[in-house]
Specification:
- By secondary structure, the chain is α/β, with parallel strands linked by helices.
- Strands 2-1-3-4-5-6 form a 6-stranded parallel β-sheet, sandwiched between helices.
- α5 links the parallel β5 and β6.
- The N and C termini lie far apart (about 50 Å).
- The relative contact order is 0.09.
- The mean pLDDT is about 90.
- Keywords: DNA-binding, Phosphoprotein, Transcription, Transcription regulation.
- This is DNA-binding response regulator.
- It comes from Virgisporangium ochraceum.
- One of its GO terms (molecular function) is DNA binding.
């Protein structure tokens, strides 16, 4: 089985390469970023890719996006995302690629048995879909109404933000301190998993989420 490994940590990359080689895999390339991953796959034509999710230069979702592009070009290419995190943005798209076959998403900290891990890679390479239970749980939570995560007070604050009230006005209406309003708004932005940007833009995104969730 020809394998390409993509992992930005040199120690993890070399360690994973050595491990797979001991179990009979042919590691044809081991690279440290998404661009190098795409180039290595085009050059070596492996049967399996094992990729980290967050890699240079942005350390966000480069590995996932590269995997999706590779699967679009070759739906039969088996891919296992091996990460410390559940990256929500593109995970569902990756799992749906190639008609959901030959795909895996594992969390590094939850891999506790080497033989089981290697067996999982072989199963994915043979066409199976293997997704860590924690990944499934987080994806299910993600697809629930995000407003369910807010407390009743946070909903009240968000409703007033949606109506265009300033922080000072919200404080007067709800009999809160200014610091209290700021704390509630910060909690709302965090619970809604809004992308980090300037606070003004995040408030707009929070309002849009609120409006979409209203009956």
């Amino acid at each position: 089985m020809r394998v390409v490994i993509a992992e930005d940590s040199v120690l993890l990359r070399e360690g994973l390469g050595g491990l797979l080689a001991r179990f009979g895999f042919d590691v044809v390339a081991a690279v440290g970023d998404a661009d190098a991953l795409v180039a290595a796959v085009e050059r070596t034509r492996p049967g399996l890719v094992v990729t980290d999710v967050r890699m240079p230069p942005g350390f966000t979702d480069e590995g996932l996006r590269a995997a999706i592009a590779l699967r679009a070009a070759d739906p039969d290419l088996a891919v296992v995302a091996l990460s410390q995190y559940v990256q929500h943005g593109y995970t569902a798209e990756l799992l749906a690629s190639g008609q959901g076959r030959a795909i895996g998403y594992l969390l590094k900290d939850r891999v506790v048995d080497v033989a089981e891990f290697v067996g999982t890679l072989r199963r994915v390479a043979a066409g199976a879909t293997v997704v860590d239970a924690e990944v499934v749980r987080q994806l299910m939570l993600r697809h629930r109404d995000p407003l369910e995560r807010l407390s009743s007070r946070e909903r009240e604050v968000l409703a007033l933000v949606a109506e265009g009230h300033s922080n000072a006005a919200i404080a007067r209406i709800l009999s809160l301190t200014g610091a209290g309003v700021v704390k509630h708004i910060g909690s709302v932005l965090s619970k809604l998993d809004l992308p980090v940007s300037d606070d003004t833009n995040r408030r707009v995104l929070a309002v849009l989420t609120y409006l979409r969730g209203r009956p």
